[in-house]
Design a protein that fits this description.
about 525 residues, Aldehyde Dehydrogenase, Chain A, domain 1, Aldehyde Dehydrogenase, Chain A, domain 2, seven-stranded mixed β-sheet, five-stranded parallel β-sheet, 15 helices, 22 strands, about 20% strand, binds NADP nicotinamide-adenine-dinucleotide phosphate
């Protein structure tokens, strides 16, 4: 019998009473561990986190919470090897792709640990300067940010079981808000193990971090007005979340990160060097984590007259990708996470192929050290629309996200046309621009800023410096308006901006003598 992973809630480890859902190795098809949340006392878990965890965290200063995050970093670093083994087995990722999730998560925690130490002994944050409310400056208004007295519930997607936990938990814990994480079932093992290591190390107060693996049944029913909910996943589930009574009636604050038709745009008149940078970045984005990144490039906008040249260069680059068992040293791209995802990618590809041509066929990649009948591996596929008129006529490429190693070349006539096509994604996480003219690039970035959480500009002078189209850095905003934000405008990270989601803002109106008491001691 495979191991049934326990959940950590109400300050103790508890196993569900059901048979549980099995987690699989997506390359070998073998059974790994089971998760289950049947019969757990969720009300007690939420109450314990809210009361015991919340009170303990709020009693700490920002600097102390920062030190606490540093201690979490150390615990995770000491178990890295185990995390890599779990990622290979459960996510089917090659080492470099596992690093994006594991080391990316630890790096993000480290960023917020430092921020906490920089914030010093305060337990609340000041928001702006005092503002006079009348002629006499004695009576003023000062805005403050205080931690919400609830829990932060995270319902996460399968593609980042490590980073997806810590990019949210770091700002929540630094804000003084306890966390309950519900990882996606398919890859819940890594999340559970990380929480287990941190809890067992005793570096967090009781109730600060809980993990519930398995079904999400009943979780949202526990939410109360001062709790916050952060969801990452598909647009369909996002719709269910948004219409749940916790959100519609009990006014729970919610952040949604849903699917996104991200784009890369080669501007007109781009130099040969800029073209090379586009080809390199698109090939990388298509293949990192087998394209299972919410930020991955799905649409590649190129001037109509350069489409054939770029299709050839991209196809040549993709052809070199070795696909298969991530344990084999020659393999550069591992598997999709599950058979369900393999099926979803195959169905999505078939849909896009009804409007686009195949420029590079993933099916031509023979799998290395993996049985095609068992392994959830697919080669990268580049699709293309025939010309600029076809880019207008095709609707699926702007609307259907294939969550795998698939992108479509979209030819355009001029910049106005490119912008119009990009906007048909109805709000995306990120668009990357390629060229060398700062004026045109700056103008294009501002044109796209209203419909994107991030615009990443790759010019030859930053070729060796830029952080990558798809890499989410804690200093920069991650999220998107419109569709990518599930209709609500998702926002995560962005340095100290991330803390705002876990705080409540209030205006304190008082005399300057009273307001001076709000300023943290130096
Ligand atoms: P999903 O099927 O929507 O699942 C996401 C999470 O929601 C899982 O933990 C899932 O649990 C849970 N869930 C399912 N039904 C639920 C319900 N009725 N109520 C509450 N929770 C429920 O999405 P996915 O397939 O894991 O993730 C892929 C999608 O995520 C892609 O579309 C991708 O674009 C998006 N994504 C977006 C971002 C971003 O930052 N914008 C990042 C990563 C991924 P179970 O696993 O137990 O079903």
């Amino acid at each position: 019998m495979t191991e049934l992973l326990p959940n950590h809630m109400a300050g103790r480890w508890q196993t569900g009473t059901g048979a549980g859902a099995m987690l699989f190795d997506p390359v070998l098809g073998t059974e790994l561990v089971r998760v289950d949340a049947t019969g757990l006392d969720l009300a007690a878990a939420f109450a314990f986190a809210r009361q015991t965890g919340g009170a303990a965290l709020r009693a700490l200063s920002c600097a102390q919470r920062g030190q606490m995050l540093s201690a979490v970093v150390k615990v995770l670093q000491s178990h890295r090897d185990a995390y890599y083994e779990i990622a290979t087995a459960n996510s089917g990722t090659v080492k470099n792709d596992s690093a994006v999730d594991i080391d990316g998560g630890i790096f993000t925690l480290g960023h917020y640990a430092k921020m906490g130490q920089g914030l010093g002994e305060q337990r609340h944050l000041l928001d702006g300067e005092p503002a006079g409310l009348g002629k006499d400056p004695l009576f003023q208004s000062q805005h403050v940010l205080v931690p919400t007295r609830g829990v932060a519930l995270f319902i996460n997607a399968f593609n980042f079981p490590g980073w997806g936990l810590w990019e949210k938990a770091a700002p929540a814990l630094l804000s003084g808000v306890p966390v309950i994480i519900k990882p996606a079932t398919a890859t819940a093992w890594l999340t559970q193990r990380m929480v287990k290591d941190v809890v067992d190390a005793g570096v967090l107060p009781a109730g600060a971090l809980s993990v519930i693996c398995g079904s999400s049944n009943g979780l949202l029913d526990q939410l109360q007005p001062f709790d916050v909910l952060s969801f990452t996943g598909s647009a369909d589930t996002a719709e269910l979340i948004r219409s749940h009574p916790a959100v519609t009636r009990r006014s729970v604050r919610v952040n949604i990160e849903a699917d996104s038709l991200n784009s890369a745009w080669l501007l007109p008149g781009a130099s040969a060097e800029a073209v090379d940078l586009l080809v390199k970045e698109v090939a990388r984005e298509m293949t990192v984590k087998s394209g299972q990144k919410c930020t991955a490039i799905r649409r590649v906008l190129v001037p109509e007259q350069q489409a054939a040249e770029i299709a050839a260069a991209l196809s040549a680059s993709l052809a070199k990708t070795t696909v298969g068992n991530p344990r084999h040293e020659a393999v550069r791209m591992g598997a999709l996470v599950s058979r369900a995802q393999l099926l979803a990618v195959q169905q999505g590809l078939a849909l896009l192929k009804s409007q686009a041509q195949v420029l590079h066929d993933g099916a031509t990649h023979a799998l290395v050290d993996a049985d095609p009948a068992v392994a959830c591996c697919v080669g990268p596929t580049l699709l293309g629309l025939q010309d600029a008129a076809a880019s207008d006529a095709a609707d699926l490429v702007h609307a259907h996200e294939v969550f795998g190693p698939v992108a479509t070349l979209v030819p355009y006539r001029d910049s106005a046309h490119a912008l119009e096509l990009i906007r048909r994604g109805q709000g995306s996480l990120v668009s990357s621009l390629y060229g060398q003219d700062p004026v045109a690039l700056g103008r294009a970035a501002l044109e796209l800023a209203d419909s994107h959480g991030r615009v990443h500009i790759i010019t030859p002078d930053v070729a060796a410096l830029h952080t990558g189209h798809g890499n989410v850095m804690p200093q920069s905003l991650h999220g998107g308006p419109g569709r990518a934000g599930g209709g609500g405008g998702g926002e995560e990270l962005g340095g100290a901006r991330a803390l705002h989601f876990y705080h409540r803002r209030a205006a304190i109106q008082a005399s300057t003598a009273v307001l001076s008491q709000l300023t943290p001691a130096a």
